[in-house]
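call fold(seq) -> tokens
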Amino acid sequence: MANLHSGESAKHHQETDFMVLGGRVISDIVITHHARTRWADRVESEKTGFSDIAEFLRDKLLSCSVRTYYKNEQDVFLIDDDLVMVAEFAEIDKPRLQSQRMPVCKMIVITFLGRMSETMELRDLRSYYSWLRHSRRMTLIKNGRKRR
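ret:
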């Protein structure tokens, strides 16, 4: 997982074509199938290919438009203060940047939760997940009653 600080944005490292986010150099962006599906459902309906999404993320990282969602969150990010993304980081076997001594990682995009401007619940993820758990539990209880 990434070691990030509150509100820290991505930074473009001038010496290379790498992006820096939260003290990690990002050399590769990996989009999971789930993330691609959620992208098509919740973000963009035309540019839905893996390369389209990776290019979008690379541009946002280079323009410093990606930051952490919460102070202590290590895997939830905001893009343009609107789009909520969940990602993990895995170190890869590349030499560290000599001037920064930061690990070189690949960013693995797990999912896109949606846009805060369209889904008000995303403005407070803790409350949103609590609501989802409660909603799911109530659905299971209701379905359990129907079977009896």
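The chain has two domains: 10-117, 120-148.
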